Each structure stands twice: as C-alpha cells, then as structure tokens.
Amino acid sequence: MSAAALTHRLAGREDIAAMTALMDAAIAELQRPFLDAAQIAASRTIMGLDSQLIDDKTYFVVEQGDALAGCGGWSRRATMYGGDRSPGRDAALLDPAKDPARVRAMYTHPAFVRRGVGRLILSLCEGAARAEGFVRAELVATLAGEPLYRACGYQAMERFVDDRGGMAVPLVRMSKAL
Ligand SMILES: CC(C)(COP(=O)(O)OP(=O)(O)OC[C@H]1O[C@@H](n2cnc3c(N)ncnc32)[C@H](O)[C@@H]1OP(=O)(O)O)[C@@H](O)C(=O)NCCC(=O)NCCS
C-alpha cells in the first residue's frame, strides 16, 4: 500500500454503500478480541450508519487516495448511539449550553487500523462541536472503541449492557471536556 496521506471530507449520501461495507467489516473483525460471535451478531442491531448525521453534515470520511479508510461523526441531536435500524432514536436538538455533544458511529477499515484514522476523525468532531458552542462531548463506546477514546482523553462514566439485539452487548458511556 502506498504511503499517501490521509485526507478527510464530509460524507455524502453517495458514500453510503462504501461506508456500510466498511462498517460491516469493522464490526465483524475488530470486535473479535472483545465479543463472541453471537454478541457480534447482536451488536449489528445497535451499531451502524445513522443517515441523519450525513444530512446534518456532521459525518466525516477519511480516505487514502481512493480507498475509504474510516468514517465517524458527531451530533447535535439527542440519540446517544445506534444506526438507522436501531430502535429508540431521538432526533431532538441538544442545547450546547447545557448538553454534551454526541460522538457517533466511528469505524476504521480493518486494513487501516492503528494509523490514526480514529484519532483524526475524533479531533474533527470535537473541533466542529466546539465551534457550535458545546463544552463537553459524550459517547457510548463498544469495548473495541474504548481504547481509542481513553487515548483521546475520554473517561468512563457508566458500564451497561444493551440486549436489544438478543444477546447482552457490553457498552460504556464516556465523557470529555472540550
Ligand atoms: C475503534 C476504532 C474506530 C479505532 O480506530 P483506529 O483508526 O484504529 O484508531 P487510531 O489508529 O486512531 O488509534 C488511536 C489510539 O487509540 C488507541 N487504540 C486504538 N485501537 C486500539 C486497540 N485495538 N487496542 C489498544 N489501543 C487502541 C491507541 O492508543 C491508539 O494509538 P497508537 O496506535 O499510537 O497506540 C476501530 O478499532 C473500529 O472500527 N472498531 C470496530 C467498530 C467499533 O467498535 N467502533 C467504535 C464504536 S463506539
């Protein structure tokens, strides 16, 4: 693979097919050290693409040349986590003066892990949220995501399980001052 630089831009609806394929690969492969096969299958119910973020222009892609390396975003809306097919989403707008911005749907292609793609997307999200007046960010991390967020200054607030996919999937709510 060439050593071309990573570039970034806002995601568009035309990126959905490629991003969905990337997410499928990341969910299947990168959670394997943390979850068993049944939990990974269940996690698909509570993870994935939230097209609201694309429409809100708060969702980024990172590329190396023509290759999609990762995607992820943030939100000024209440939903904490989940994709288009997850139950219980809430599109209510947050108040930057009292609510934390959400960090959402971070995925790196397995061929691009540990090259700073996640860190880059997170810094883009934090900068954009700060520019809109948010002073904190919150997220709900998978166990696969937790090391990235810890490395970027997020602290664990609460551990819980989500069993809406039919198996208990461990998750952790994390927070950071922006
Ligand atoms: C979480 C995820 C997006 C991280 O992506 P990434 O692009 O590999 O992360 P980065 O290269 O930016 O990592 C930055 C730092 O985070 C930490 N980190 C990231 N992945 C890690 C891992 N698997 N184990 C230990 N530390 C890790 C390291 O400190 C790393 O810095 P280093 O590589 O210099 O040591 C990726 O693993 C993924 O897609 N996982 C599956 C989907 C998922 O669970 N997403 C999170 C939803 S909340």
Tell the overall outline. Answer: globular
Main sheet summary = 7 strands, mixed
Share of β-strand residues: 25-35%
Ligand roster: coenzyme A
- Radius of gyration in whole Å, from Cα? 15 Å
Question: Which runs of at least 5 residues are low in confidence (pLDDT < 50)?
Answer: none
For the termini, the CA-CA separation is 35 Å
Number of strands: 7
Round the mean pLDDT to the nearest integer and report it.
96
What percent of the residues sit in helical stretches (DSSP H or I)? 25-40%
Order the strands across the largest sheet as they lie in space: 1-2-3-4-5-7-6
- Summing up helix and strand content along with how strands pair, one would put the structural category as alpha+beta
Number of helices: 5
Describe what you observe in this structure.
It is a single chain. This protein has 178 residues and is of the alpha+beta class. It has five helices and seven strands, in the order E-H-H-H-E-E-E-H-E-H-E-E. The protein has helices at 16-30, 37-46, 51-55, 117-131, 146-151, and strands at residues 6-10, 59-64, 67-75, 101-108, 136-142, 155-162, 169-177. It has a seven-stranded mixed beta sheet with strand order 1-2-3-4-5-7-6. It is globular and about 40 Å long. Residues 26-27, 30-31, 70, 106-108, 113-119, 141-142, 144-145, 147-148, 151 line the site of coenzyme A.
